[in-house]
Amino acid sequence: MENQNPLQNGALEGAAGNGGRSGDGSALIFLGTGCSSAVPNAMCLIQPSDPPCQVCSQSLSIPPDRNPNYRCNTSLLIDYCSSDGIRNYIIIDVGKTFREQVLRWFTFHKIPRVDSIVLTHEHADAILGLDDIRAIQPHSPTNDIDPTAIYLTRHSMDSIATKFPYLVQKKLREGQEVRRVAQLDWKIIEEHYDKPFVASGLTFFPLPVMHGEDYLCLGYLFGEKCKVAYISDVSRFPSNTEYVISKNGAGQLDLLILDCLYKKGSFNVHLCLPQTLEAIKRICPKRALLIGMTHEFDHHKDNEFLMEWSEREGIHIQLARDGLRVPIDL
């Protein structure tokens, strides 16, 4: 695992990326940094081009834990250690690749459980892992366990109730057999998204963004000592949201984690690298990490370009990678 930079009161310090927890403080663990179809792109493997896609073909020869170009669906785990020493584990989004992320990164970083879940929206790459939550809950054939709190919008709740009715129903119908399923405690984020909520001791401020002009998605702002904004699916920032996270608005972020789908051009429902860099220049965080990348991005080569951009613009920016652990003082 490559070196990782902790954030403590906004300062950057070097730290080795060893397995397990490094110290006793909080940390951000990137469970996934790829697009909805993930990387490698399946088409590159079943119908290889000539020459083959370098990023995707590499996945066949290098183990994923040593390949920063192997990317699962975007998901962040917050290993939150409060001031009283209590540790909680909060996940933002549980997509199609959630089980793979658990097997790979929960074991590597010694994550013992999930205390709460926060959803950005109800698309497949954010919610289709909900069924697998049962695998990380205590075993009970009668479902007699404490449910995991899950925070989401009313729109997401209605969509999930259609996709996963058995995860939402409160009582069995007469004659219906008990089947072991994930136990979830659904908590609706207030409609206007202007009030914070607390998940497992950590305060989150919803950040409404456009994910295409016909769809509202949420990012989240969290952290008191270090301010972090996580925005995984965005094509445009409403002015109020950009003000909240901008240096020239409500105050500078210590870390911005931001969507970046393709290297060139534009896309109707996501930021691509040109728009991502422009947004970062406007928002002006102390540091930015990019997520949601397709196979167009080669981790090492493109991080060299981003390092040059960082030196020129005075904002440290890099591509994140699956399994990256960033110690941070929340």
CATH fold annotation: Metallo-beta-lactamase, Chain A
Shape from CA axes? globular
Helix/sheet category:
alpha/beta
- Which radius of gyration do the C-alpha atoms yield? 19 Å
Mean pLDDT: 92
Which spans have pLDDT < 50 for at least 5 consecutive residues?
A: 9-18
Our measurement of the CA-to-CA distance between the termini, rounded to an integer number of angstroms, reads 24 Å
The CATH architecture is 4-Layer Sandwich
Order of helices and strands: EEEHHEEHEHEHHEEEEEHEHEHEE
Count of structural domains = 1
Please report the number of helical segments: 9
Short description:
With 330 residues, the protein is an alpha/beta fold. It has 9 helices and 16 strands.
Q: Secondary structure elements and their pairing?
A:
Layout: E1 7-8, E2 11-12, E3 27-32, H1 42-46, H2 54-57, E4 75-81, E5 87-92, H3 98-108, E6 116-118, H4 124-127, E7 148-152, H5 154-163, H6 165-168, E8 184-188, E9 197-199, E10 202-210, E11 216-222, E12 228-231, H7 239-245, E13 255-259, H8 273-283, E14 287-291, H9 299-313, E15 316-319, E16 325-327
Parallel strand pairs: 5-6, 6-7, 7-8, 12-13, 13-14, 14-15
Antiparallel strand pairs: 1-2, 3-4, 3-16, 4-5, 9-10, 10-11, 11-12
Pfam families: Lactamase_B_2 (PF12706)
Protein name: Metallo-beta-lactamase domain-containing protein
InterPro entries: Metallo-B-lactamas, RibonucZ/Hydroxyglut_hydro
